[in-house]
Structures are given as structure tokens and as C-alpha cells.
Amino acid sequence: MTWQGNPSHHRAKGFTLIELLLTLASLATLSTVAYPLTALMGQHIRELDLQRSLREIRCAIDAYKTLTTH
């Protein structure tokens, strides 16, 4: 059985080079935006941990002062 269609209308399956380049450019743009955001989130988490640690230290100092002054 042979193909009877017009060979000029036959299109190979797959992606074109332009489609691949546009996808790659989009992914690169998204990654350059996402990386600083993840760095900021990491910094925010460290700051929250530091605040928690400082509260614990302050409570411990207050408890020590209460125990030693009475």
C-alpha cells in the first residue's frame, strides 16, 4: 500500500527548532525569576528561626533573673 497524498503536504512528526528554542528561552526566563525568590524564602526562614531562638534566650534570661532575685 502506498501513500497517495501530495508529498509537499507531508509533515514530519516532532517539534521544530523554533518551538524548542522558544521553550528553552521560556524555561530560562522562569528559572532566572524563580532562583532569587527561593533565596529570599530561605533567608526569611533563617530570620524566623533566629527570632524564635532570641525569644527562647530572652525567656531563659527572664526565668534566671526571677529565680535568682527572690
From TrEMBL:
A single Pfam family it belongs to is N_methyl
Record-given protein name: Prepilin-type N-terminal cleavage/methylation domain-containing protein
Q: Which SUPFAM superfamilies match?
A: Pili subunits
Keyword annotations from UniProtKB, A to Z? Membrane, Transmembrane, Transmembrane helix
Tell me which InterPro entries the record gives: N_methyl_site, Pilin-like
Segments spanning the bilayer are 20-42
Repeat as a keyword of this entry, yes or no, is no
Has keyword Transmembrane? Answer: yes
